[in-house]
Amino acid sequence: MQHPPIYILGQGAIGSLLAAKGQESKLNTIQIVRGDTDKNSRVELNDTVQHLRSKTRLKNIKSIDFLVIPTKAYDVENVLKELKPLLTYGSQVIVSHNGLGTIELCKTLIGDIADIYFCTTSTGAYAKNNVIHLAGIGKSEWALVSKSPLVEDKIGKELNVKSVISTLFFNATQVSDILPVLWNKLAVNAVINPISAIHNCLNGGVLDHQHQQLTTSILEELVLVAKREGLELKINELKKLVVDVANQTKHNSSSMREDVLNGRQTEIDFINGYIANQASLYQIPAPANTYITSEIKALQRL
Fold first, then answer.
1. pLDDT at position 1, please?
2. Which of 227, 299, 233, 220 has the alpha carbon at shortest distance from 266?
3. What's phi and psi for 298, nearest 5 deg?
C-alpha cells in the first residue's frame, strides 16, 4: 500500500533539509508554503546540490494524513489552528523545534484527531544564496507525546512514523520519555543561543571566562524549575553538556544569533522566557533568565 503524502510545512532551513532527505529516499514528501514566495529551492546534501520539487500552496491542499511541522516554536499555535481543518481523523503529526512550551498546546488543539510526535534534533542547517547547507550533523530523539482516540491501527501507524522519522532526520532514536531530553537541550540552548546573540559571537565564544557566572545562574534557575516539574537535573552535568556542545559547534553561528543578525523573531519566549515564566508560576526567582529574555527582546526591536 502506498504511503500517503508526507507534508512538510515551510521552506526554512530545516524544513527544506527534511524535504531533500525525503526526496533523496524516494518518499512522497511535499513541501507546503502559506504564501506565494518560493525560496531555498536547493539543498547541498552528500556533496551534491539537490533541486527540490516544486512547493505546494496551502490553499491547494484538500486533506492531510501525515504532517511534519519543523517551524519555529512561536509559529506552532497559528499553524495548527490553520491546518486543523485539513487534518484527517487519525492523522500523524510530527512537531520539531527548539525550546519548550508547545506540547500541551498541541494536545489541546489537535489531540482529539491526531497522533502527535515530538522530534528534537541537534542537526544544524543554514540558508545562503537560496541554497541550504548543513552546519553540522547531530543526533535526533523523538517520542509519541499524545495518542488520538480515533486511530484504529496503532501499531501500523507507529511503524510508519518510525520509518519516516528515521529517513528524514539524521541519527534518529525513539525514546520512551521526551521531556528529560528536551530539558537537557533547553539547558544548552538557554546558554549558547542568547549569549552568542547578545555578544555577537560564534558558539565557541560562549565559553569565554566572562560568561561563566551568567551561564551558572541560567542553569541553576533551570534546575530549580525542572525540579518543580518533576525532573531532577544536576548542574554539573548540564555545565558539561553546554561545554561539550559549544566545543563541538565552536565554529557555528547559533540560530538565535542568525535570527538577530537578520532581523527575524527569535524563539526566546520558548527558551529563557519559558524558564522565567515557569519560575514565576512557582515563585522561584529567575533574574538571569529574565535578564537574558529582556536583552534578546531589546535586540529584536533594533
1. 46
2. 299
3. -65, -40
